[in-house]
Amino acid sequence: VPFDLAWTFSGKPNGVLFRYVFARAVTFPVGMAGSQGVAETAFGKETVLDLRRNGMVIGDVRFAANATVATFTGGFETRFCIGDVLTVTGQSTNHPNTIACTLVGVR
To answer: Which residue in 27, 47, 39, 35 sits closest to 6, CA to CA?
Structure first.
């Protein structure tokens, strides 16, 4: 069964931007294939947002310099069990922006 996890953030993307606790088991494919992300305005330099499962980095959302469309990384298929927490964290940047992303997985 398809599972889409959408989130948005407005402001300076520093620290924790989003947290989600899973009520159902979900698996995300290698490289977060099929996931989408956009920024309202382009960042002046490359900006990377970490994707973490229970505190461990599992991939990232990456905006190249002067880009508004994200690419996603993740070296392996990642399964979240009931009670696991996904956290999205940002690097130190003074560039405020609005970011919207949808992670695509299966239940």
So the answer is: 35
**Entry pTM:** 0.92
Give the chain's radius of gyration (CA, Å). 13
- Residue 35: Cβ-neighbour burial (10 angstroms; 0-12, 13-18, 19+): buried
Of 9, 18, 6, the C-alpha closest to 104 is 6
**Cα(60)–Cα(73) distance, integer angstroms:** 5
* Number of Cβ within a 10 Å radius of residue 85: 13
d(C-alpha 71, C-alpha 88), whole Å = 15
Other CB atoms closer than 10 Å to residue 50's CB: what's the count?
16
Helix (H, G, I), strand (E, B) or coil at 86: strand
Q: For residue 27, what pLDDT is reported? A: 97
Task: Please name which of 71, 81, 68 lies closest in space to residue 49, comparing C-alpha atoms.
Answer: 71
Tokens of 59: 């991939």
